[in-house]
Amino acid sequence: MTDIYQDTPAKPAERQFTVSILTEDKPGMLNTVTLVFTRRKLNIDMINVSSTEVTGVSRFTIVATTSRGQVEKVVRQIRKHIDVLGAFVYEENEIHYQEIALYKVPTKIFLDGVEVEKIIRSNNARILVIEKDYIVIEKTGHKDETSALFKTLQKYGVLEFVRSGRVAISKSKRKTETFLEELEKSTTHSLNNNGTK
Amino acid sequence: MEQMKTSQQSSPTTKKKMKIAGSEAVILSLLEEGVDTIFGYPGGAIMPIYDSLYHYLDKITHILTRHEQGAAHAAQAYSQVSDKVGVCFATSGPGATNLITGIANAYMDSIPMVCITGQVPAHLLGTDAFQESDVLGISMPVTKWNFQVTSAEEIPWAIARAFYIAKTGRPGPVLLDITKNAQFEEFDFEYKKCEKIRSYHPYPNIEIKDIDDAAELINKAKKPYMLVGHGVLISGAEKEVMALSEKAGIPMASTLLGISAVPSDHPNYMGFLGMHGNYAPNVLTNECDVLIAIGMRFDDRVTGDTKRYARQAKVIHIEIDASEIDKIIKTEVAINADAKQALELLIPRVKKTEHKEWIDEFRKLDEIEYEKVIKHDTYPDGDKNKMGEVVRLISEMTDGEAVMVTDVGQHQMIVPRYYKFKNPNRLITSGGLGTMGFGMPAAMGAQVGAPDKQVISIAGDGGTQMTIQELGTISQYKIPLKMVVLNNSFLGMVRQWQELFFDSRYSFTEMTNPDFVKIAEGYGIANSRVVKRSELKDALKTMLDHEGPYFLEVVVEKEENVFPMVPSGESVANIRLE
Fold this sequence. Notes:
The structure holds two protein chains of two kinds. By secondary structure, chain A is an alpha+beta fold.
């Protein structure tokens, strides 16, 4: 564990962490989760919420730049919310992740030669739709990759650029369902037993 | 409704179905949870519930406070003395926002409470309707759980869940916001108690290895030291704490909210921790080799500068809330558990031993504190009243048996320092939030929750005026509470800081006060004022002998300072005696 005494005032090393949270699918959960970040004036770099393979369970994937000590405290405080099933923090090397970016460019840039086509091919991007006035290019990848393509396309004119939050999958082999089952076993709901395992 | 089913699979008490209005379902559900007292204030959006309540006044007592904040504080203190969950009602909009301070206070101090607010009809939500406020949004950061009920069918489920969440694990306040249409709607009422929520784990399973590791540290320790927190009172682990201390010869000290868990005269009890706590418990925090923190969260008022807090010690932290572990102080052994459960397992594993020399170190410092501070505070000379003496006398005259309720400020530190508690749960104070105005309404709730006990509120002149309207409630219901106002015509604690750290620039801390006893008189409450020290004892006796509510103003020395003191940002070891 990081030395918690170093968190303030000297700033510890900051880096990107991915926080993955499983919650009951209920209104207000987004507020509940983000409040914990807001309280500590911690900015959320990216956020994604979606359903999981288990009915009624949502997954939040949040990316934030902070210290290990700080993010661990945030995750523990998120865990304690009633409708939160689990919350985990991952370093970049503990997950597989992707983001998706869409680029809206004028159709005419394809008419002036093959350059843009080459760019799309070399970036492993693809064309999503072709309209009379514009074309939408899609690329999945990490932020540096989607940003690099944006930079390249910029000189041809980009009408709009959007990027999704991160979706991440952990390298652990455990299924979400198994996690939920283990959760049931590892805790007690009343003080009737002696509480040990 | 899917989740509702999963959370109530194996519930025992299933009542027969009957068609009733949502408002009546609220009352019946509260009765199912054993509620017999509610503090509240009616208004437009909660009128159907108040109308239903009217039909159940043989089963439920409702106390009409004079402000919703008062209702929340009263419900909290009621809960603290009675072991029941405090319940309060308020209407939408301003009624609900007025509750927030009280809810935040209960949240910081882990007190179970169920707050029910009325809300505009569901079809008007989000339209800026009359007296609409986003209570769910506002209360989210200060509640353990909150929920908006928009249809009558959700009422029994939400109330069952609210009580279960409020009182289990680390307790806390819960808010239910019930729209007016849900109160009017009729439905088939059926009540099942909540016994389980799959995403909520109030009692973590204990790792036996953690207990063994803790026992090993304690058994090897030369200077072990126990910190007793509010968690000890919440889990009812008072006997276990004393048993551990007695068996392993460990000195104990208490946080503000842990006070009264251990009797003040216990031979191993060393006093009160933190900024204005006792000298020895603070200084020797930085001398112990094993620090056993039980049911406490290392508040900054306890630790002072954390970089210079117990860095020499190996820390064992017994705490039910996992998010408190390693939050402020790094632990060697963390036992994420209910205090009583953990101690029951720990006690048989520790060796019987004594640490006489170590305990003597505390006693030596106690003598210094007595000579420099306590003696002058509690046995002063001259004819001016001192707060310390007032509290010492009350302690002696009530034989340490009273429920003491404080407001916030200098007197709040004096009460735990000089009242000699004999029984648990006898100090009610606003610890985490430090809410001025807490005292009088809380004392009122405490007296309602413990009608057979002597309840005494001690407050300053500043805090008293923040919720002074509750004298109306005390008068109306003849709540036989004894109120002592220590009047120094200053916001004393702030003034003390200004004197010590801001070159005595008394920026807006002096107060021109009303004639307090005339106000009490106006409310029809027996009263008196003491100015001279020579008259103090008789005045206190008159107050204590009085049958009904009594208001006593004690004019105290204007510029008295509370010592010892750990200046803000200092190490506990550098606690000042003067």
